[in-house]
Amino acid sequence: MTKATIHLAIFMMVLVFGMATAESTQGQEICHDIVMKGQTCVPSTCATICKQKWKGSGKCFPNGFTQSCLCTFPCNS
To answer: What is the pTM of this model?
Structure first.
């Protein structure tokens, strides 16, 4: 294969994968909810609560002087 053919093949792969990714995420809105308000966030508890409540994922993040639990999930759940 020549250099031009290799470059064209790589470009086509990136283009196809990019289009497939855009199609799979198009139309999905991501929602957020802060849970465990007033409590210090424990990562495992945060993840469990978010999975049970929203079928999403939960992460602790710094919020002022404490850690809060932020759930991220598809809005239609």
So the answer is: 0.60
